[in-house]
Secreted protein
Amino acid sequence: MGISRMTVKGKGFASAPPDAIAISLQLEDIKDTYELAMQHAALALDQVRETLLPLGFPKKEIRSTHFSIDSAYEYRNDFRGENKRYFLGYRYRNDLKVTFGNDSKRLGEILLALSTCEADPEFSVYFFMKDRQAVEQALLEDAVRDAKAKAQILAAAGGVMLGKILAIDYDWGEIEVRSRIYEASSKMAYDSAPMIDLEPEDISNSDTVTVVWEILNAQKG
């Protein structure tokens, strides 16, 4: 005799204030030769390190997430009006990242320093949860509660009772717990520093679980 089942999806929500900040920096330029591109990339990296060192970031804490040097081209019309590809030189790109605790005052100091850095980096800021466990647990607990509430409504409407839980399905994908990104430019005006006071909203997220219940006193066809 088969077991009657009810399958319900529950959606959970959780939010918490961010506890960490990450700044992503991008160094990019085009030079005539490969050697010049390498030299300039190294110089720009040193300039960023010199800028961030007094703010508490030793060399090992300025991490490179991507580095490349590629031939650079552009398409434009020649004197005959024909569209052709022209070699520009060698483009280097070095993506860096630093992270630190959520401190808006320190963030303002770092952004101000980067705005005067000779390497002229582009950068963006995002707030995230370094301690994710509590948020993930609250989110999943809320999802199971939501599934149970829905199941109880369906059971009452159908004149049946819920039995034991037969299965809980969750894909265990990584829950993203970071806020929206704030973009900035190294060309920002020096006198704009007093305006830098970024207070992020709580980071919110959602996820789903699928719960299967045994149905008691179900009518058999």
